[in-house]
């Protein structure tokens, strides 16, 4: 059995292969492109049997390597960068090189750390929903720019009209991407999430694409941590603080969608409205109270997706 840890970057890959006794068998250096990855995979298939490749989750940079490995029947394990960082900090020398990172990834993967991924793990829905969210942000910025321009140069109607056309084109492109994202999402899961107050046809695909397989989360606490809406815990002596800043780990797109859904739900759902008001009465600000509400909303999302039954308003 051979485990290969890969330190992934935008242009290059650094790898270390170890056996089941954690002894280094070989080191690798190759480019992060289709040709070099395929050549590397052909080489290791000829040299070793029962191979597992592992890397950290690095935005989209590990995607090509993972899909190429899966296509050749090689198991691929994806690790949370936080885990490898904590492991590095725990070592005495605290070395930080690409080779050392690859070795740490290999050792952690050998012990079962991380999740084995499949081709379904790289669903393209996330690309559509994330790009649409970025365009919405650009649209908002451009609206402010256009408004400011009209105030400064009120006589140049042609330039303002051109800016308006850009805004309309962004709106059109956003709608197109959202429509494509919806078409690639599981229709039954979308219908299930739409039974939850605050979640509609725009937010549901984002939640599904960002969460992925709900079975990867054994408890609701693990999903809350993944969303990054759990508070940091600080302890000093006998003092223990829970009400600190959020950890903000995981997907910012997931947090943003939950915040939007909670803002809507607290208006239309009596239970969440009362919960939000309770937090406000406790002295929480608008943002803090809404985040607490989004956490409660995520409980509903978890229950609905786990049980495969719609939410029933009480």
UniProtKB/TrEMBL annotation:
Molecular function as annotated in GO: DNA binding; transposase activity
Domain Transposase IS116/IS110/IS902 C-terminal: 191-277
Gene Ontology biological-process entries: DNA transposition
Boundaries of every Transposase IS110-like N-terminal domain copy: 4-118
PANTHER family: TRANSPOSASE FOR INSERTION SEQUENCE ELEMENT IS1111A
Descriptive protein name: Transposase
Protein's organism: Candidatus Curtissbacteria bacterium GW2011_GWA1_40_16
Lineage: Bacteria, Candidatus Curtissiibacteriota
């Amino acid at each position: 059995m051979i485990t290969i840890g890969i330190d992934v970057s935008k242009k290059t890959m650094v790898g270390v292969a170890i056996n089941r006794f954690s002894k280094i068998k070989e080191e690798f250096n190759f480019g992060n492109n289709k040709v070099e990855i395929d050549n590397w995979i052909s080489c290791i298939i000829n040299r070793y049997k029962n191979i597992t490749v592992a890397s950290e989750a690095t935005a989209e940079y590990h995607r090509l390597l993972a899909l190429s490995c899966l296509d050749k029947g090689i198991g691929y394990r994806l690790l949370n960068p936080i885990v490898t960082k904590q492991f590095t900090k725990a070592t005495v020398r605290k070395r930080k090189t690409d080779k050392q990172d690859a070795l740490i990834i290999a050792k952690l993967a050998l012990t079962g750390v991380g999740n084995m991924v499949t081709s379904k793990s790289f669903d393209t829905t996330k690309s559509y929903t994330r790009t649409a969210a970025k365009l919405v942000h650009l649209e908002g910025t451009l609206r402010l720019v256009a408004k400011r321009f009209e105030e400064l140069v009120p006589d140049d109607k042609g330039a303002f009209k051109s800016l308006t056309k850009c805004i309309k084109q962004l709106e059109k492109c956003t709608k197109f991407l959202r429509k494509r994202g919806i078409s690639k999402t599981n229709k039954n899961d979308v219908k299930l999430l739409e039974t939850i107050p605050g979640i509609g046809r725009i937010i549901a695909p984002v939640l599904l694409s960002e969460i992925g397989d709900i079975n990867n989360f054994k408890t609701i606490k693990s999903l809350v941590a993944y969303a990054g809406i759990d508070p940091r815990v600080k302890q000093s002596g006998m003092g223990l603080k829970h009400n600190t800043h959020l950890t903000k780990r995981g997907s910012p797109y997931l947090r943003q969608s939950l915040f939007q859904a909670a803002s809507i739900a607290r208006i239309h759902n009596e239970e969440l409205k009362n919960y939000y008001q309770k937090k406000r009465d406790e002295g929480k600000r608008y943002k803090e109270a809404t985040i607490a509400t989004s956490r409660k909303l995520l409980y509903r999302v978890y229950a609905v997706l786990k049980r495969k039954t719609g939410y029933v308003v009480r």
